[in-house]
Amino acid sequence: MANINSQLPTDLVSVGHITGAYGVQGWVRVHPYSADASALLHAKTWWLGKPEGNVRSRSDALIDVNDIEKLEAKRHGEDIVARFVGVVGRDAAEALKGSVVQIRRSHFPALDDGEFYWLDLIGLTVENLQGESLGVVEDLIDNGAHPILRVVSVNQAPQESDGDKAREYLIPFVEQFVPNVDQQSKKITVDWGLDY
C-alpha cells in the first residue's frame, strides 16, 4: 500500500467496510453498502481508510487513506471476499479490519435509463406536482420491496406540535409516486402532498 493522502482522487465514494479476515491466506471479508456490489467487484484499485471516530461512510472523515491493488474479489453470501497485492496471511488481513473501502465514482458501471445510484439522489430538491417544495433527499431506505426517499424539509416552518424538528417525508421511490428525476436540474418531482 502506498500512502497517497495528498494525491487522492476527488471522486472517491465509500462502498463498504472490511469486517475482518477470511481464512488464513490473506483474504478479507467486506460488507458492501449496496446490494448491487458490481462496482466494488470490478474496480481494480480500492482505497482503504480508517474511520475517524464512529463515522463509517463519510469520505471526508477518513484518515490514513491508502490505495491497494485488488487481486481477486467474489461474492460470499451478502458479503464480498477479496485479496490484495502485499496482504499475505491472516494477521495482515485482520489488520485491515474496520477499514472503509472506497472506489472512484468514474469506475461505477453505466446505468440504464431510469436507473440511479442512490448517492446521486442524495441532496436533490423534491417538489410535488403542484410545485410545492417538500425539501431535500437526505437518505434512501431499502425496505425490501423498493427504496424509500427520506426527504427533510429545509425551509418549512415547524408545526407547533413538532417543536423545532424539521418535517420528514418517506416517499416510495416507485414511478407511481416519483414520475420524474432530473439530475441536471437537481430536482425530483413527486406525486405527494405536503400534508401526507
UniProtKB/TrEMBL annotation:
One of its GO terms (biological process) is rRNA processing. Its main location: cytoplasm. Residues 118-192 form the Ribosome maturation factor RimM PRC barrel domain. Keywords: Chaperone, Cytoplasm, Ribosome biogenesis, rRNA processing. Residues 15-106 form the RimM N-terminal domain. It is found in: Cytoplasm. GO terms for molecular function: ribosome binding. GO terms for cellular component: cytoplasm; ribosome. Transmembrane segments: none annotated. Pfam families: PRC_RimM, RimM. An accessory protein needed during the final step in the assembly of 30S ribosomal subunit, possibly for assembly of the head region. Essential for efficient processing of 16S rRNA. May be needed both before and after RbfA during the maturation of 16S rRNA. It has affinity for free ribosomal 30S subunits but not for 70S ribosomes. Belongs to the RimM family. Binds ribosomal protein uS19. PANTHER family: RIBOSOME MATURATION FACTOR RIMM. The PRC barrel domain binds ribosomal protein uS19. This is Ribosome maturation factor RimM.
